Amino acid sequence: MSLVYETQDEHGVIRVFDDGKFRTLSFADGDEQSRVQLKQPHVLQHEYTQAMLLALIDRKPKRACVLGLGGGALVHALSKAVSGIHITAVELRPEIVSIAEEFFRLPKSKRIEVITDDAIAFVESNKSKKFDILFTDLYQHFGMDKRVATQSFIEHTKTQIKDGGMLVLNCWEEHQYQLDLKETLLEQFNTVTALDTGCGNWVVFATNAPHSLNLKQQKDECTQLSQSLGFPLTKWQTRLEEVV
Question: Which pTM was predicted?
Fold first, then answer.
């Protein structure tokens, strides 16, 4: 891949690479924060982001929040998959927002709002309408923001979600062994499921409104979603396990 843009802010280096088919966002050597297929930017390339969209099974969200914009891959996919959805994306670094718009074709719409703020502060103070789904994808060059796996953060995210809404956390695989995180999730939500992607990530789905669909109906909806999204969701559905 060839380097097409490089800049630096107080948090470190930001690079954009392109090979003619894909464009990637990187914060460090060997790191890939976002990858977008230029002709079909809604088709998610990273497996953990694909897995996160299992949240759409049996849900037709009107409002979603994405904490951590990156190249905007989740925003692309959500705006394509759910007609009329309102998306709020929260990104700490203004330069990342500019790059997502210029190099990653971030969709422009009255229904897409990008807020430059620290995501942790946002969930503590936001007073706007609550969300049907809240996605967290908070990573920098050093890895996942450690504040995500804390009781305080989980409790604050719950205040931002509607009663029947869902929290989706993208964590490192080792977080599945963090007992205090599991305990906090189970204290705040009555249904918590998760999957190990097998590529370093543990994706958690927490809600107080579990599926009304039976297993066959869930599989059928998963198949339909896969067709509209352009990637197979079924393999992630089969990995889902209840968190206890």
Answer: 0.93
